[in-house]
Amino acid sequence: MKKLCVVGLGYIGLPTAAMFASHGWQVQGVDVNKNAVDMINQGKIHIEELGLGEVVESSVKNGSLRASTEVDEADCFIVAVPTPHKEDNTANLDYLVQATKSILGKVKKGNLVIVESTIPPRTINDVVAPLFIKAGWKVGEEIYLAHCPERVLPGRILIELVENNRIVGGINEASTEKAVEVYNTFVKGRLLRTSALSAEMSKLMENTYRDVNIALANELVKISEKLGIDALEVIGLANQHPRVNLHLPGPGVGGHCLAVDPYFIIEKAPEESQLIANAREINNSMPDFVVNQVGKRVSNNNSKIAVLGLTYKGNIDDVRESPAMEIVDKLLEEGYSLGVHDPHVSQEKVEFKLSSFEEAVVDSVCILVLTDHNEFKLLDETTILSKTKRPLVLDTRNCVDIRSSEIEYVNFGKLGTALDRVHEKI
């Protein structure tokens, strides 16, 4: 049985380790978080992902998966550590470098090292490979090195690890083929052979495309508010064109991919990436835009706002780079009192108090929906009508189905006209 070591047991590393463990590999998962390591060794998971708990539990039980804080010898090493951006938006590769160095003392001739972490262009050639070369290895001959970026959707990770096409970029052709052999273990999608450099850039462009498209939709919302146009209707109509696919607007862009990856391109070619940089600015402006929309409808900053949702997308527990977290901070800075509810987020993940839905909405003058969790699609309208001071729902995700005509409902469609109606009532 071949041995695999996965360094980094977060939202990508743990599902990857579990998938290999359930397909015939002897897998060691490594992480600096001892609490996560202990939980995994008990057959439990420290993140929320559909179906993952069952796979981890069975793999630990049959002995094909174990976790540790130290790297052991293996036939293949996969690095899946975070690559956050610094305050100046350049990539922080410290975790990647540390993970690579932890492998150096364990790697043997013929081993394969795969970096799944999202990284700036030329990182494999200019950062990772030199570490092995300095240690005396002939990269591409004695050991093999590849970049195989993840491209999965939270909530569907176990499905998409199997079904999605996979980019496999080796530092040379031999490395590419070695990596293809590894992913052939369970991947049913196409394995797309390329260079490490093209793999790095392809991953970044996948998320940059989406970021730019969302920025276009968010800019449309701002324009439409000014002109009194229904932005959501416009998007729906435009998308009837066979070659148009406008994305939906929202309160901003979050997560470790869309909100971060474009900066890795900007970092390497700032003068040539003007469109990408402008899209980042537009999406980064949306939390202020949302707070401004609240202010237009709530004149008293001492009022209570009910905030529904903290994660950057629906039905997950991930608050990394979430615009909702920034909006909460900005509302508090403005002086509002808040009731915050997110059924997917545990209290230890945030510094402010979380509440139940009823506690959050009681005495509120505005219910602000920031995440499209399934739980928010049909809100308890009886509670809204009986507990709030003003039954107003401001839905930045266009996900809530309001049935009662007594509840004022505003989404990103008719912001300008909806505000006119509010002012008429006042």
Q: What is the structural class?
A: alpha/beta
**Helix content, binned percent:** 40-55%
CATH topology of the largest domain: Rossmann fold
Ends apart, CA distance between termini: 72 Å
Give start-end ranges of low-pLDDT stretches: 421-426
Strand content bin: 5-15%
Number of helical segments? 16
The CATH class assignment of the largest domain is Alpha Beta
On the 0-100 scale, what is the average pLDDT? 95
H/E element string?
EHEHHEEHEHEHEHEHHHHHEHEHEHEEH
List the helices and strands and how they pair.
Layout: E1 3-7, H1 13-21, E2 26-30, H2 34-41, H3 52-61, E3 65-68, E4 76-79, H4 94-104, E5 112-115, H5 123-134, E6 144-147, H6 157-163, E7 166-170, H7 173-183, E8 191-195, H8 196-227, H9 231-238, H10 261-268, H11 274-284, H12 286-297, E9 304-308, H13 323-334, E10 337-341, H14 357-361, E11 366-369, H15 381-387, E12 392-395, E13 408-411, H16 415-425
Parallel strand pairs: 1-2, 1-4, 2-3, 4-5, 5-6, 7-8, 9-10, 9-11, 11-12, 12-13
Antiparallel strand pairs: 6-7
Helix pairs in contact: 1-3, 4-5, 8-10, 8-11, 10-11, 12-13
